[in-house]
Amino acid sequence: MPNKTNPYVGLRPYHTDENSFFFGRETQTLELLQRLYHHKFVAVIGSSGCGKSSLLRAGLIPALKGGFLVEDSNRWIIAIMKPGESPLYNLAEALLKEIDKKPKKNDVQQFVTQIEEEGIDAILERIRPLREKDNFNFFLLVDQFEELFAFAKKKPEDGEKTRADSMNESITLVNILLELSQQNLIPFYIVFTMRSDFIGDCAEYHGLPEAMNKSQYLVPRLSRQELKKVIEGPARLSGKKFNSALTSKLTNNLGDVQDELPILQHILMRMWEYDEHQDEANKDVIGFEDYEAVGGIEKALSRHAQEALENLSSKEKKIAKTLFKALTKIDENNRKIRRQVRLSKLVVLTEASEEKVLDVINSFNAGGRSFLVIESIGDSDDKLIDISHESLIRQWRTLRELVVEEARNAKQYKALSVKERQYKAGERALLTGIEYERTEEWWNNFTPNKAWASQYDTNYENCTEFIKESKRQYTINKKRKKFRTKVLPRIIIAAVVAAVIAAGLFYVKSQQKELQDELERKLTSLKEKAKQENTMAAYSDYLGVLTDKDKDLKKEIDSILNKKNDSLWERAKRFNTVEEYNNYLETVTASVDEEQTPPKIIYFDVAKDNATNAQKIIENLEKQLIGNNVGPPKDNEWDIAQKGNTVNDYINYMESNTAHYDAALKKLNSIGSKGWLFVGRTLGENKDNLVLDKVFDIIARKDSTDKMEPNAMLKKGDIVQLRGKAHRKIRKTTSSNSQDVGLVRDNTKYYVNEVEIMGSDDNQERAVFVEIIF
């Protein structure tokens, strides 16, 4: 009787007990057996989605059990593990599960301690009785070996361990695997699967590259004939036919999509389900009607995932979107990739119960989806959640958009954190104007919580206060602007009208009394509001109309604001710039005396003397910086550069000064970044001129007062600026394939650190590259 279980597994790998449905890999299984026969340690390498795990689980392991490796022996202890977040614990647990079947957590932890203290002797002692009694052979599959590299570089969430502990544990695991495969006391075979883009990480582990060089197996792509078996074989075995024309269409279209095997397995699984449960007209024949019904190879996976999302309630959708944002990221190469996250952290991020988060996760694993993976974490009660395959990120449009949205929010938050730290260090002012408005709009719409923010920066509380403080200052500035543009003109008009009334009308006194009564009511209202809100803005409103008769309250207000004003005054004195003194004056200005014409500025009493001093200092600074039109005194230029302490400050100093040139260069090297870029070509025998494709103009050259020729060759120590408006990429080396490390921008000066001319003297054209500090 035909088997009506779906023979296609979708995104997940085949299990060992599904080997009868595993087609197309017979040749590769035999090649692996041959490698394992000659070398007890084999590294199976391949790109993401090439079928590594299925090849081992449903191809190699059943062959081992069938007796194809060791002559006259089909008795095997087979353990499967992933490094995860507890590599040694997962190794110990995988072995004990095959020996004791149901080990307790304490037993596993004791075994881990033994392994750490005794190495492979602890493992050999456990398995020796099985070998002596029943002549067992031992096989260990370490799936997704690249997880070990991520573990080694990550600080454990267990607060008692450090990043160094993670690295030591990963080295210990590698050493144990190598030693187990090399010892001759007990036959122990080890295979691990790893993505090919992690090969470079293996060099950090002594002995691992050498072992891999002997027995590495690179998983080949399937031929058209093998793909035909993958497509038609499982359907035939389950009692269905597969349209041969559809087989040709699938094999032809696979070359046009990324993640071809996961995408193929998923659409095959979907077509089988549709034919089994919904296609009444052509039941038991998988054809084009089934293919079109599930969305074709381009849309099947995206549509299936979207169905899972749309079946959720509005609250569950919000949880799902937060969950998938946490499980994905954009790496340094701008690739959208998955990342593992603990269930406990997802609970905090989503602000939902653990039960509700698990319900959402299970909804994406129902109906043959298997989009998410739940794994144990060592002896912890927590779970590790992961996306089953990155093809889901690349194929599901909604998830791609969520990844981009998450990256944009993370970038906005990290930029805000940088600004807050600069403000705290005295390197910038609070957020103002459009910058504040955009930041506040983003913050209020996105409403990040501390758990989310901690993924990118631990500065959440400070950023919150930074926005609040910016809001207070923004509100004060806005009220002042409103007063200058709206209230002040009305005051002047009112004064003119009052003068006309006083000169020409008999009943002016009665009018004045009404105005006085209105002023008293306004004073009382503002006074109560200031006491209740206890904010600078409210006190400023009150002080704007306050008279001398309420001196006690005026002193009370001054004492409240005293600490803030003193801090701003000290900051202004430290930087000694017009901008900082003006910032001080703006802050301590409360309002105006509306009874004077023109209105008179009022300062808080505690700031009055400092305000007078600030105005005098500003006048002196402006005379030096602007009035004389000669720039700051020469003796102060080095001090100014040091106060600014940026690459641009030191380059500006070096452009026209040499007294502290070496010290400025040393500073440049310590705080700046370096990178190479192509800047032009020489032609023929003329090596002193850039005559083609010139990028930079020379602004200044050390020890030279002569005007530079327009096409002069660049030298070490030159100060240069981009010619034209086009931005140019700065690369890590002179190679065009080198990593980008920055961008050259117009209206910015750069220091030339090195010059390199590429090409022999025989060449008519030679390319010129420079290393710049930026």
The CATH architecture category of the domain at 25-218 equals 3-Layer(aba) Sandwich
Instruction: Estimate the global geometry from the Cα principal axes.
Output: globular
The number of helical runs is 29
The proportion of residues forming helix, as a percent range, comes to: 40-55%
Largest sheet: 5 strands, parallel
Based on secondary structure, the structural category is alpha/beta
The top-level CATH class of the domain at 25-218 is Alpha Beta
Distance between the termini: 73 Å
Summarize the structure.
The chain is an alpha/beta fold and 774 residues long. It has 29 helices and 21 strands.
Q: Can you characterise this structure?
A:
The chain is α/β, with parallel strands linked by helices. Among the domains are: 25-218, Rossmann fold (3-Layer(aba) Sandwich); 224-306; 506-627, no CATH class; 673-773, no CATH class. The protein is built from 29 helices and 21 strands. Strands 2-3-4-1-5 form a five-stranded parallel sheet, with helices on both faces. Strand 13 and strand 14 form a beta hairpin. Helix 6 (147-153) packs antiparallel against helix 7 (163-182), helix 25 (578-588) packs antiparallel against helix 26 (608-627) and helix 27 packs antiparallel against helix 28 (647-656). The longest helix is centred in the middle third of the chain and has 45 residues, at 460-504. The radius of gyration is 37 Å and the shape is globular. The relative contact order is 0.05. Residues 503-508, 590-602 and 626-635 have low confidence and may be disordered.
